Amino acid sequence: MAAIALERTIASAYRFAFTRILSVLGVIWLPGLILGAVIAAVAWRVWPDIHGLQSLHLSGDGSAGLHISGDDRDRVLQTAFHLAPFAGLVWLAGVAAQAMISVGLLEVALGRRQGPVFVYFSLGAPVWRMIGALLLAAAMVIAVALATCALVVAVVWAVTHYAAGIVGLAKFLSVAAAIVWIVYVALRLVFLLPAVVVAEERIDPARSWALAKGNVWRIVGLILAVLLPVEIAAGMLSRILFGGVRMMETELTTIVLHAASPADAVMAAASATHGLLPLLFLFNLLTLTLTTGLRTGAMAGAYRAAAGTGM
What we know:
Order of helices and strands: HHEEHHHHHHHHH
Oligomer: single chain
Shape: globular
Radius of gyration: 23 Å
Strand content: under 5%
Number of domains: 1
Distance between the termini: 15 Å
Helix content: over 70%
Number of helices: 11
Strand order of the largest sheet: 1-2
Structural class: mainly alpha
């Protein structure tokens, strides 16, 4: 497979993200709104369960975390078990929304959809293929991760029993190698798969694996080059506008610790951030639009380069 021309692909990613920003927003907003509606409906449905924990006692601080007593922990586990199906529903809705957005954006980035896009919604075959591809890729990466972890445990066990003097070194090297291997597999298998699904109209992890051969380090460089500058800029702007994420987390932790119950904590946190919500929404929407456009542009450019279809 052809090598990814890093500079040209980075340039094409930025060009797509900034010149087609309105189309990126046009693809994102309706699936995102539907997902938000699902989350809101689930939150409304499970609020009585959350409110039922109103006598829960929290202790601890921001640095040491929050703690609950043994009896309260049992109640939390029971509530969590009851809420698990709703969490699954939200997860499935998130996968569907991600698949829909990926298809819509890649159709624009790969030239399969011409002109501006102001609203996008589809439940056609490409979206279902994308859902299947995302689930299959997730299952494959999880299987590789589990097998790798099992191998690490076996290696550490063997070293502990037969070469105890180097067990510390063995743990470090085996864990580091496992992390590198899992990241390698995930990048090589997943990064180009959505573009394969849209451009070639098939679910083919083997094809994305083959296209990424010899390009994994270029993909790492590509991801860093297109996403890191935006994340740094967003972090600096967040600090200027809101005092930074860390400060907001500290303030919200303080609110939770002084609340009489989880329900009171939610209400107090909502009240404390009420004035910032419109600005936070616009800031996060802009950041999401830019990062999504950059990621899609990078993926489309990398696919065209690796597949030899031109930039």
